[in-house]
Amino acid sequence: MIKRYGIEGGKGTGGQSLPFAKAVAADGWLYVSGQTPMIDGEIIDGGIIAQSQLAIQNCLDIVEQAGFSKEDIVHMKVFLTDARYFQSFNKVFKEFFSDCPPARVCCVADLVVDCMVEVDMTCFNKKFK
């Protein structure tokens, strides 16, 4: 069985409706779509620290809404717009995941919204199999 979360009206920049689910669960796995440092369709002001905190928190909120926990996160993908943000992002990452760090990839990429970071998460919990 596949369950989709957040298909009923996710909003992107400028209030546009997003054409994808915030997350999809299947056979114990949860795949969280990439999250940016956005509140109500607007990217927050602030540097890489504030933007990293919100992007991660936005993912964690979706994880929790789907019934998973931080301990269920097995992998993250991180997209930074500048390699110089790497150390600052790692400090934020450690604040969130010091006791249960997931595997991770981090790369530099142009993002389709005007922010410094985007993250996604993959979770697993056998109770959802």
UniProtKB/TrEMBL annotation:
Please give the superkingdom of this protein's source. Bacteria
- Alphabetized GO MF terms: deaminase activity
Q: Single GO cellular component annotation? A: cytosol
Q: Which Gene3D superfamilies match?
A: RutC-like (3.30.1330.40)
Family, similarity comment:
Belongs to the RutC family.
Q: Please name the PANTHER family in this protein's record.
A: 2-IMINOBUTANOATE/2-IMINOPROPANOATE DEAMINASE RIDA, PROTEIN HMF1-RELATED
This protein is called what?
RidA family protein
The organism named in the record is: Zophobihabitans entericus
Give the organism's phylogenetic lineage: Bacteria, Pseudomonadati, Pseudomonadota, Gammaproteobacteria, Orbales
